[in-house]
Amino acid sequence: MPIALLTDFGDKSNFVGVMKGVILKINPQAKLIDITHKVRFGSIKQASFLLYKSYSYFPKRTIFVVVVDPGVGSERKVLAVETKNYYFVGPDNGVLSWAVFEDGAEKIIEVKNKKYFLKNISFTFQGRDIFAPVAAYVSRGVKIEKLGKRIKQIKKIDFPEVKIKKDTLKGEILYIDSFGNLITNIKKDVFLNFVKDKKFVATLNGKKIGKLYNFYSQAEPGSPFFIEGSFSFLEISLQLTSAKEYFKAKEEDTVIIKKL
Amino acid sequence: MPIALLTDFGDKSNFVGVMKGVILKINPQAKLIDITHKVRFGSIKQASFLLYKSYSYFPKRTIFVVVVDPGVGSERKVLAVETKNYYFVGPDNGVLSWAVFEDGAEKIIEVKNKKYFLKNISFTFQGRDIFAPVAAYVSRGVKIEKLGKRIKQIKKIDFPEVKIKKDTLKGEILYIDSFGNLITNIKKDVFLNFVKDKKFVATLNGKKIGKLYNFYSQAEPGSPFFIEGSFSFLEISLQLTSAKEYFKAKEEDTVIIKKL
Amino acid sequence: MPIALLTDFGDKSNFVGVMKGVILKINPQAKLIDITHKVRFGSIKQASFLLYKSYSYFPKRTIFVVVVDPGVGSERKVLAVETKNYYFVGPDNGVLSWAVFEDGAEKIIEVKNKKYFLKNISFTFQGRDIFAPVAAYVSRGVKIEKLGKRIKQIKKIDFPEVKIKKDTLKGEILYIDSFGNLITNIKKDVFLNFVKDKKFVATLNGKKIGKLYNFYSQAEPGSPFFIEGSFSFLEISLQLTSAKEYFKAKEEDTVIIKKL
Questions:
Q1: B214 contacts C73? CB cut-off 8 A
Q2: Are A124 and C228 inside 8 Å of each other by CB?
Q3: CB–CB of A21 and C62 under 8 A?
Q4: Is there a smaller number of Cβ atoms within 10 Å at the N or the C end of chain B?
Q5: Contact C60, C33 (CB under 8 A)
Q6: How high is the ipTM of this complex?
Q7: Do A56 and A28 contact (CB within 8 A), yes or no?
Q8: Which SS3 state, helix, strand or coil, does residue B114 take?
Q9: Which chain C residues touch A25 with a CB distance below 8 Å?
Q10: Minimal CA separation from A41 to chain C, in Å
């Protein structure tokens, strides 16, 4: 069973490496994969999105360890969740919720059993002291019921839905990828159903977005366009240029589409 | 058989992690190695160079997956190539050519068999939907003939050769490494044969480069020098400083060496 | 036996990937873990600190390969050290010393046996040509005595100790982590013993640091505080902000604590 790691630890320090050392000390056979460690510092929403759009590509029974945990050391719970196809380990701050609800929670455990932690638990690095060893034991076959007591709910964060009012659709920027593409919360079929055969004007931060294309090379350099991206949402892109820079965009900015 | 990945995906998003998930879903035993994911966005030439100067250090039968693919979603072919010692999977845009020609192509396949792709193929992320699963199946022992039809040629990009005219040698900056060292296309023996026992003046962007040294600690701080680097070309370096900054250099800049 | 890598190679070039290729060519079973490759370029002290605060979390018999080596190609020795629980491979510039002395050196070898190197040894990339293959052979079970001749000492660098003089304690910034937290050389018990029940004023670069907290969420936004961090030293932090920026701090800056 692979263990996939998603954190906001960056790559400058030894944090991720030490978590991997801890895991291999407990399970020398563990297969470790990095999703990314460059979640924006403390951004639960960004981590939720990346987990949600990644988990289903992994082998069944993969254990996802998510450490984006601004409340580390406080009273927030530590969760281990078994869903239909996967395991998830992380803080109870909503970060697991989109993936867990999509795949379907089967068991939710509030992790409390110190037998599965490192001996000394710091207040600042529970990725190393709690999350990593817990995941390692699960990968060794420890049933998640043994980790603590069963609870009924995890903290949920709301997925930002598109708003349609008469001739106006309002969406938002969910995520900005490595290339500066702007991933919206607008599904292609929602867009096509809304626009139909009408003309439309789409804007973000006062600048226009042109047509919907099928692939990058259809576009003209310098003109922003919509494209159905790999996250299965419409993305706002420019050919070989950063749409992030062009629109001076940030996550949660509003995209407005008006039918003419 | 290890699978080595080379892309321009960066490390901020989940792209590389998802490709690895896809591979492990198909071949749970796959051994995954990153060459780098920080190829300059869309730079086929830079990726060609890094592949060319990396592949031979890997175990025989390693499968190299190269996703630097500005034409993704358009009509460019997907290639799987078996060379004397290795396998290469990538787009047919020239990125594989320097490595493939050096090692010697034995079979070139235009990959078309959807049986070896993910079910849903996006127009924007074929690293996940095509290249990763194809590599995973090859690592499981699928013969590359099964992936599509045999073709005779791959797209080739020209390796930039040194130009010598009377007392002047013109080279170019092939690559700038993590430290800011400037890797030229000038081989040490070509340089020595050209210069012989004469004095020379070497310049880049109007600034002089001094002697040829054998190792960094021979140099004086602040003075740029030539050194035979690990890519087996002459590099332009400064001790513990970035030559890139000093010369305000970029790839494809011209180095001029004149005999006096 | 895992092989853990710690370098200043960054992630833009193919250096780390090529080292891994070399290792797997010699030992296809090797389990490779990255500690970090973003040690500040040429900073032996920073690498020493990261190795020192990482190694004990790894499985026994892990082989640590440290390539922070500004003297590459010069006369500095190549070391292979067997300690009570681990192996260390790196240049003899002090980078191994804090970890090796803590764990207890059992055998120190000056590595000289070219049988365990690549055939062609460059002057600039001995991570690939010497350190990686040596580590791979050790992971295959080659006794370190076979690598060269036994020596008695390795180069040591001094750990910076806290200075206490009457009512003033002077510490220094050992390390700045990915989040901009400032790790000092002050242990919590040293601090508590010094301050006792008195009030104190703590400053760094002319700005004040407030209370000692147990976890981040106790602090008020915008106010810097001390916290016992995961490196088991006091750290200077701000809630969800970079203390590095706030204090314009760099490594080796002095922290002054005065009892009132």
A1: yes
A2: yes
A3: yes
A4: C
A5: no
A6: 0.95
A7: no
A8: helix
A9: 57-59
A10: 8
